[in-house]
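Let us work through a complete example step by step.
Step 1: write down the sequence.
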Amino acid sequence: MSRWKMVEVMVGAFVLMALISLAVIGLKVSNFDGFQERPTYQVSALFSNIGGLKVRSPVKISGVVVGRVSSISVDRNTYQARVLMDIYQDYNELPLDTSASILTSGLLGDQYIGLQPGADDVYLINGDQIDLVQPALVLEELIGQFLTKFADSGSEGK
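Step 2: predict the structure and record it as tokens.
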């Protein structure tokens, strides 16, 4: 094999490794874990506002991913957002009085569900609903409230 052919083979191998690396990074960034099927159980929660929460968003306890959001729909009785979560079976001893909050990673990051375990002796099982919830904080609403209070405080001084 000539020297030129050897260089072409090495460049081809490098390009192939770079493409495989980009594919793996893309799958990691998109939270794709289709190759890692873990047994789960499903719980739900009703939120008045889910903000930018999406299907496949993580469900975390103390920053550790314990599940994923499996679906989001509107409840026909309450007209609130019904969020179904697949919780990994490893975490099957979550107390019944666990609370759920929609939180944001950083200032403008993705949203996720944060669970805060309670102290009940009875545990959540497949099909249960989490009743203690805190909806997402919408940045526009907070800015609007701040501007309203700022405007009100400015007019009181005159």
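Step 3: interpret the result. Helices lie at 3-29, 139-156.
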